From TrEMBL:
<dbReference type="Pfam" id="PF01807">
    <property type="entry name" value="Zn_ribbon_DnaG"/>
</dbReference>
<keyword id="KW-0863">Zinc-finger</keyword>
<dbReference type="GO" id="GO:0003677">
    <property type="term" value="F:DNA binding"/>
</dbReference>
<dbReference type="InterPro" id="IPR002694">
    <property type="entry name" value="Znf_CHC2"/>
</dbReference>
<keyword id="KW-0862">Zinc</keyword>
<dbReference type="GO" id="GO:0003899">
    <property type="term" value="F:DNA-directed RNA polymerase activity"/>
</dbReference>
<dbReference type="InterPro" id="IPR050219">
    <property type="entry name" value="DnaG_primase"/>
</dbReference>
<dbReference type="InterPro" id="IPR036977">
    <property type="entry name" value="DNA_primase_Znf_CHC2"/>
</dbReference>
<dbReference type="GO" id="GO:0005737">
    <property type="term" value="C:cytoplasm"/>
</dbReference>
<protein>
    <submittedName>
        <fullName>CHC2 zinc finger</fullName>
    </submittedName>
</protein>
<feature type="domain" description="Zinc finger CHC2-type">
    <location>
        <begin position="43"/>
        <end position="89"/>
    </location>
</feature>
<dbReference type="Pfam" id="PF13155">
    <property type="entry name" value="Toprim_2"/>
</dbReference>
<dbReference type="GO" id="GO:0008270">
    <property type="term" value="F:zinc ion binding"/>
</dbReference>
<keyword id="KW-0479">Metal-binding</keyword>
<dbReference type="GO" id="GO:0006269">
    <property type="term" value="P:DNA replication, synthesis of primer"/>
</dbReference>
Length: 287
């Protein structure tokens, strides 16, 4: 029994990125905390298979499934649990996962305080993005936070897990945990946007319908898997994701998996997102 537990622990700790490379699959895009691959489980031309560098977990958006290294081999080789363990004990796959080194045991970003009062500097930034202060103040707060020895302030949107999505003119980050934001007004229709300024822009561009729908601000496309339990409760799901390759992939995924989903990105085409369209409209109206 002890030997089996050790084998399971060792196999589960196999570094997924290195494992995929050894099997001939290389990332198409790498970031600080994640790597994107063309799915090794199916044919595709745009990467929708993500591996977390901090958690050593994978997720395939096209299949709506993910897991650890053992799960990956079971799916990749169409084998059972024991066969996956035997495969991973091969010395050629002895890539032990080591999480990125932590510089400090203290959180990188520490929340100090929040306030409904928004300073003039942040109000200027809101207006630069074409958003009325009155609208922004309904949903955003001023968040003061510490990064190592520095004290900073940003606009903050609270997310579903009580983390804070932070934006100012120079910096974009999050006070963990990362999650989506759900604005629930108990409607049967849901509107999905990518970021806080897309959401607020919708409140300007489509003010008549804005209050007649619930809203999800994704805050990151990587948060979509967290929505799987929420989306079936809505009769209509309106999609306003970005007009870019990542937005295309996620829109296609949601349309495929939810019959009630409707792609409304044509409403801000050829602009990349809702806020870009709003800023364009503001400029045109001042010429």
């Amino acid at each position: 029994m002890k030997k089996n537990n050790e084998l399971w622990s060792s196999a589960r700790n196999t570094d997924i990125i290195q494992l995929l490379k050894s099997l001939g699959h290389y990332p198409t895009k790498t970031k600080e905390k994640e790597a994107w691959f063309l799915s090794p489980l199916r044919s595709e031309t745009q990467a929708s298979f993500i591996v977390s560098k901090t958690k050593n977990l994978w997720y395939d958006f096209g299949l709506s499934k993910g897991g650890n290294s053992i799960d990956l081999i079971m799916n990749l080789k169409s084998c059972n649990f024991q066969e996956a363990l035997n495969f991973l004990k091969n010395p050629q796959f002895s890539f032990s996962f080591n999480p990125p080194a932590q510089i400090s045991h203290e959180p990188k970003i520490k929340l100090l305080k929040t306030s409904h009062f928004i300073s003039n500097a942040l109000q200027d930034y809101i207006m630069q993005r074409g958003i009325p202060i009155r609208l922004a103040s309904r949903f955003l707060e001023e968040v003061t936070y510490k990064v190592r020895s520095g004290i900073y302030f940003s606009l903050g949107l609270k997310n579903h897990k009580n983390g804070w999505e932070l934006r100012n003119a120079y910096f974009k980050t999050v006070i963990p945990p990362k999650s989506y934001t759900h604005i629930c007004w108990n409607h049967t229709s849901l509107c999905i946007t990518e970021g806080m300024f897309d959401f607020l822009s919708l409140g300007v561009l489509e003010k008549e319908s804005f209050e007649k729908m619930d809203h999800v601000i994704l805050n990151s496309l990587a948060c979509v898997p967290q929505l799987m339990g929420l989306l079936p409760s809505y009769s209509k799901i309106y999609l306003y994701l970005d007009n870019d390759p990542a937005g295309d992939r996620m829109t296609s995924y949601l349309l495929e998996h939810f019959a009630q989903a409707i792609d409304l990105r044509y409403r801000f085409y050829p602009h990349k997102d809702l806020n870009e369209k709003l800023c364009h409209v503001r400029r045109e109206n001042t010429l």
